[in-house]
Amino acid sequence: QVQLKESGGGLVQAGGSLRLSCAVSGLTMNRYRMGWFRQRPGKEREFVGGIEWSGRYSYYADSVKGRFAVSRDNAKNLVTLQMNSLKSEDTAVYYCGATSGYGDIRTMIGYNYWGQGTQVTVSS
Fold this sequence. Notes:
By secondary structure, this protein is mainly beta. It has strands at residues 3-7, 10-13, 18-25, 33-39, 45-51, 58-60, 68-73, 78-83, 92-99, 111-114, 118-123. The chain is built from no helices and eleven strands.
């Protein structure tokens, strides 16, 4: 049974940092690209960042570029999202996803598995 479980969310002041983790089980992680998405109140789920199989290449939404960083440890079946310089507009539920496909890592189509999400609230 495949499981992706996010953790590390919470309440933080603007300008602060949080580190989200996604623990993966039930699949061979180095066969999947991993992505982080978020859903802000009243908005559709959107791409935040993604990372290729080996971790050599990563991709980011313009809104988080330079502030967020995705990393992975295939040996530990773990993906992380380091979030710095947080803003109130980063408030959202954050989800990690796994895709075995070769399409655009920024789009939700093609993702095989999702976690249940973790809430991040940034107070201004």
